[in-house]
Amino acid sequence: MTVVKSILLFGVAAVFEIGGAWLIWQGVREHRGWIWVGAGVIALGAYGFVATLQPDANFGRILAAYGGVFVAGSLAWAMVADGFRPDRWDVTGALICLAGVAVIMYGPR
Question: CA gyration radius for the chain?
Answer without folding.
Answer: 15
